[in-house]
Specification:
Spore Coat Polysaccharide Biosynthesis Protein SpsA, Chain A; globular; alpha/beta; 10-stranded mixed beta sheet; TIM Barrel
Length: 648
C-alpha cells in the first residue's frame, strides 16, 4: 500500500483545524503522517493541532502564504503521495482509499476528485488544454506523487499568486507530461474562502499575474494568452454585474472588448451602463418566464429531459401498479424547512397496510432520516419487512438529515441545490442509517420535494441505488430553486452514469380538451407568470387541461380511475405509481386528512382503487425492484446524452 503524507497549512485556523485533522485520521487508508503547518497564526492553531499527538506533527513558520506552508510540509514528508488538505475543509472517510485506486500507473502524477462547485462531467484525465480552459482541481481534493511535486519545484511562493498558486502548479504539472486523473466521486467538503465575491480585486490580480508567470515558464502561444486574459475579464465582469458592482463591471467588460471585439462583449458592456433599477427589473421580468439574464453569471442548470433519455422497454407486460409511500415525520407543510422530528403517525400505517396485504400489494416505504433513526419510526416497518409485506426505500429531507451544516432556507430544502459533497454525505448517512436499523440496503431513492440535482444520479450509483422515483412530470415548482419537470418523460427511462439508474416517475396524467398537447400547454401555464395569473386553475375549471396525480391526497377516486383509463388507452402506459405521505394515516397531520371522516374516505379510496385496478383493468401488483429487473432484461441500460434532473 502506498504511503500518504497529509499536509494541512493553517493561518488563524484554531476553530476548524481539528475537524480537518480528524477527517484525515478517520481515513480507511491511514496516513503515514500528518503535517500541520502553522503559517504565523495569531490564535491557537498550533496548540489545537498539538493535542492530537501521534502521527500529527506541527511545524511553525513566519507568515508567508499557503504556498510556502505547503512547501515546508512537503520538505518534511516521507510518503509516496502528498495529500493536500486546507485547514477549513475536511474529507469523507474513504477519500484516500478511493483515489489510490486511480493511481496505479507510474505516469500518474496526481489524482483529484470533483469539486462541490462543479456541475456536469469532469474529464477523466485532465490535459493541459482542459486546465487552461478552467481550474477543475480543488486543492483539498488532490493527492500529488511526491516525485512529481519535487520535479516541479513545488508551489511558487510569490505572494502575488495567493489564491491561484495551486492552479499554477496543476497547469505546470500537466504541461510537463505528468498525468492528472479524476476519481469521479466527490470526497471532500469544501469551505469557500477567498473568492470573487469576497475579494474581487485580489483574486482578479492574482489570476492575471498567473498568466504572466506561465508565459515566462511555459511556451504558451500569444493567442492562447490573449484569449485567456479576455476570458478572465469576462468572467469577473459577469460576476461584478450580477453583484451590481456596476463600475467594476464596466471596466472589466471594456478590457475584454479591447482584447477581442465581439457582439457579446459589446452587449455586456452596454448592459453594464443600464441603471441598476433597470437591470433589476429586467432580471425580475426574465425570471417570470423561468429564464436567466444572459449578460450576467451563467447558471449551469442540468439539461431538461428530452432526446437524451432512453425509455425503458416493458414489452406487453403489465400494466403494473407500484405503491411508494413517503414515510416521514409530521411537519407543518407551510413552514419548510421544519424542525419537527415526530414520527408518531408511523404506528398507524397498519390502517393502509392491511388493505395492501389483502390485495397482494407489497408497498415500498421511502423512509427519511427521522423515520429511519427513531425506533418509533422504523419499528412498525421492521415487522412488515420481516413478514415480506413491504420493501424499504430512502427519501432525503435535507433539513433534518445529518450533517446539517447548510443554511435552513427553502432553496436548500431541495437536496439537489446543496453543495454536491454535502448532498452526497446526507444520502450516505441516510443509507447507512437504514441499513443499520432496518437491515436492508435500499435500492430506491426519492429526493425530498422532488428536488433532484445535477450530481444526484452519480451519487446514487456510487451508493448502490438502482431506481430513482423523484421526477414529477408536468410539474414546475413555484419556489426559487425548485425543480422543473415540465419536459420530463411520463414513462420510466434510463439515466445517470452509463444509463445505470431506472427513473420511475410519479404517475401524473392530463385530462381535458387540451390534453393532446398537455405538455406544451403546461409549459405555458406553469411559468411563474402563468402561476401568478392562476392559469392552471382556470384551465382546470374550464375543462381544458387538468393535471392528475395518482394519489388519494386531493384527487377524487373518479379522477384517479379516469386518468388511469386515459393513460392506458391513449399512451399505452404500463407502470403506475400510487403514492401518498405516511402522516396522512393519522388525522390532523396533512391538509388531506383533517378528521376521522377524512381518514375513512382516504382508506375507502385505496380499497376501491385497488379493486378497480386489479379487477376492471386487469393489472398486476409489482415492486420497484421487480420492474427494474423486467426493464433490465428487455432493454439493457445504456448511457443517455444528458442527465434529466433539472433544478432551478
Amino acid at each position: 500500500m502506498a504511503r500518504i503524507s497529509v499536509i494541512i497549512p493553517g493561518y488563524n485556523a484554531a476553530g476548524t483545524v481539528a475537524r480537518a485533522i480528524e477527517s484525515a485520521l478517520a481515513q480507511t487508508v491511514k496516513p503515514l503522517e500528518i503535517f500541520v503547518v502553522d503559517d504565523g497564526s495569531k490564535d491557537g492553531t498550533a496548540e489545537v493541532a498539538e493535542t492530537f499527538g501521534g502521527c500529527v506533527k506541527v511545524l511553525r513558520k513566519a507568515n508567508g502564504g499557503p504556498a510556502s506552508a505547503r512547501n515546508l510540509g512537503a520538505r518534511h514528508a516521507t510518503g509516496d503521495w502528498l495529500a493536500m488538505l486546507d485547514a477549513d475543509d475536511w474529507w469523507f472517510p474513504a477519500k484516500t482509499e478511493r483515489q489510490l485506486d486511480f493511481a496505479r500507473e507510474a505516469t500518474i502524477g496526481a489524482v483529484h476528485s470533483p469539486s462541490e462547485d462543479v456541475r456536469g462531467p469532469v474529464p477523466a484525465e485532465l490535459s493541459f488544454d482542459d486546465l487552461w480552459r478552467q481550474n477543475w482541481v480543488m486543492n483539498s481534493s488532490i493527492m500529488v506523487r511526491r516525485t512529481a511535486f519535487e520535479a516541479m519545484g513545488g508551489f511558487i511562493e510569490d505572494r502575488k499568486l495567493i489564491s491561484v498558486e495551486d492552479y499554477n502548479l496543476w497547469i505546470r504539472l500537466a504541461a510537463s507530461g505528468w498525468r492528472i486523473v479524476t476519481c469521479p466521486e466527490v470526497l471532500t467538503h469544501y469551505t469557500r474562502g477567498i473568492g470573487i465575491s469576497s475579494d474581487l480585486e485580489r483574486f482578479l490580480g492574482a489570476s492575471l499575474y498567473n498568466l504572466d508567470v506561465l508565459e515566462r515558464v511555459l511556451a504558451v502561444s500569444p493567442e492562447k494568452l490573449r484569449a485567456k486574459r479576455r476570458q478572465i475579464y469576462e468572467d469577473f465582469g459577469r460576476t461584478a454585474l450580477f453583484e451590481r458592482k456596476i463600475g467594476v463591471a464596466r471596466k472589466l467588460f471594456r478590457e475584454a472588448l479591447a482584447i477581442q471585439p465581439s457582439t457579446g462583449n459589446a452587449l455586456r458592456l452596454a448592459a453594464a451602463h443600464l441603471p441598476a433599477p433597470v437591470l433589476d427589473a429586467r432580471r425580475r421580468a426574465l425570471s417570470l418566464f423561468g429564464e436567466d439574464d444572459p449578460s450576467e453569471v451563467a447558471h449551469d442548470r442540468p439539461p431538461v429531459p428530452g432526446p437524451g433519455c432512453v425509455e425503458a422497454d416493458f414489452g406487453r407486460a403489465g400494466p403494473f401498479l407500484l405503491v411508494v409511500i413517503d414515510s416521514e415525520e409530521e411537519f407543518d407543510w407551510e413552514t419548510v424547512p421544519s424542525h419537527s422530528v415526530s414520527v408518531k403517525s408511523m404506528r398507524y400505517q397498519d390502517r393502509a397496510q392491511r388493505i395492501f396485504e389483502r390485495f397482494g400489494v407489497v408497498p415500498t416505504y421511502a423512509v427519511d432520516y427521522a423515520v429511519a433513526s427513531q425506533h418509533e419510526g422504523f419499528a412498525p416497518l421492521a415487522e412488515y419487512l420481516a413478514d415480506g409485506h413491504c420493501e424499504i426505500g430512502a427519501q432525503l429531507h435535507p433539513w433534518l438529515n445529518p450533517p446539517v451544516v447548510e443554511q435552513l432556507v427553502k432553496k436548500n430544502s431541495f437536496p439537489g441545490n446543496l453543495p454536491p459533497s454535502l448532498e452526497f454525505e446526507k444520502i450516505r448517512v441516510l443509507t447507512e442509517t437504514i441499513e443499520q436499523n432496518l437491515g436492508v440496503s435500499p435500492i430506491l431513492y426519492r429526493a425530498g420535494r422532488y428536488g433532484l440535482g445535477g450530481n444526484t444520479a452519480r451519487f446514487l450509483c456510487q451508493l448502490g441505488y438502482r431506481i430513482d422515483c423523484s421526477v414529477r412530470p408536468f410539474y414546475r415548482s413555484p419556489e426559487p430553486g425548485g425543480p422543473d419537470y415540465r419536459a420530463a418523460p411520463s414513462r420510466p427511462f434510463w439515466f445517470g452514469p452509463g444509463g445505470q439508474l431506472l427513473e420511475i416517475p410519479v404517475t401524473v396524467g392530463v385530462l381535458g380538451a387540451l390534453s393532446a398537447i398537455g405538455r406544451q400547454a403546461y409549459s405555458m401555464t406553469s411559468t411563474p407568470l402563468g402561476q401568478t395569473l392562476r392559469m392552471p386553475g382556470i384551465f382546470a375549471r374550464a375543462g381544458l387541461l387538468d393535471r392528475i396525480q395518482l394519489t388519494p391526497e386531493g384527487i377524487s377516486l373518479e379522477e384517479a380511475k379516469r386518468v388511469t383509463r386515459t393513460m392506458l388507452a391513449r399512451d399505452n402506459h404500463r407502470i403506475f405509481v400510487l403514492s401518498y405521505h405516511s402522516p396522512s394515516l393519522e388525522p390532523g397531520n396533512t391538509p388531506y386528512v383533517r378528521t376521522s371522516a377524512d381518514l375513512q374516505r382516504f382508506l375507502h379510496w385505496l380499497e376501491a382503487y385497488l379493486e378497480f385496478f386489479f379487477t376492471e383493468i386487469g393489472g398486476i401488483a409489482a415492486t420497484p425492484g421487480q420492474v427494474f429487473d423486467l426493464a433490465a432484461g428487455l432493454s439493457a441500460p445504456r448511457a443517455p446524452a444528458s442527465v434529466p434532473v433539472p433544478v432551478g
